[in-house]
Amino acid sequence: MNYLITGTDTGVGKTFVAVGLIKAARAKGIDCIGMKPISAGDIDDARSIMAANQGCEPEHLTNPFWYRTPVAPYMAAMIENRPVDLPAIRSAYEELASRHRSVLVEGAGGILVPILADYDFRDLATELGLSVVVVAANRLGVLNHTRLTVESIRNAGLDCNAVILNHAPGPDDLSQLTNQSVLEHLLKISVISVERDQKDFSGLVHALGL
Q1: Annotated catalytic residue, options 23, 36, 188, 199
Q2: Does the active-site annotation cover 36?
Q3: Burial 65-75, CB ≥16 within 10 A → b, else e
Q4: Is 41 exposed, middle or buried (0-12, 13-18, 19+ CB in 10 A)?
C-alpha cells in the first residue's frame, strides 16, 4: 500500500510519523521506503527519511527537488526561477514503487499547499494513485483543521485511510483528552494517537496495511 503522508499544517509531525512507520515496517521485514518529493528550506526531513530507508535508494530519487527558500514549493520555485518538474517527480516515484512493496510520500505542509498555480498535493496524490494519511497535532483547534483537510481529500475522490493524532510539542490542554474520540465519531475513519516520544510504530504499520 502506498500513501501520501500529509498534514493539517506545517510542523505537525509528518516526518516523525513517516520515519517511525518506515523504521517499524523495515524492522518487521516489510520492504517499505519513504520519499520527500519537494523540500523547501532545510533538508533535514529528507535526510531523516533517507536514513530511515537505510540508504537503499539515492537522494535524487528520494528527494528530487530541494529549494533553499523556506516557503511553499510554488513560491520557492518562482523565487529561485526553477519550476517544479512534475514528470521528474512522477518518474522518481514510479522507479521507487517498482522496486519496493510500499512507498510513503511525505508532502510539504498541508494537502492544498500549491506546487504549481493550478496543482497541489491533492493533485499529486491523485496522479500517483496514493491513498492519504493525515497527521494532525493533538491540541485545541485540531477538530476544525482535521475536518477541513479530510473533507478536501474526500472531495477530490481520494481515500483518506486514517488520521494520526500526534502529541506535538507545546502546552497541554483539555481538548487532548477528547480529540481522538470526537474525530472518530465525526469522520468515521480510524484515528490513531501517537506520543511525542513514541518509539514503537508496529501497531500503526499493521493498521495501515503496509
Answers
A1: 36
A2: yes
A3: bebeeebbbbe
A4: middle
Give tens-digit pLDDT for 7-47. 999 999 999 999 999 999 999 999 999 999 999 999 999 99
Distance CA 135, CA 20 (A): 13
Give just the sign of the alpha carbon dihedral 67, 101, 152, 160.
negative
The pTM score is: 0.95
- In whole angstroms, give the CA distance from residue 109 to residue 127: 19
Pick the CATH number of 3-208 from 3.40.630.30, 3.40.47.10, 3.40.50.300, 2.160.10.10: 3.40.50.300
Domain ranges of the chain: 3-208
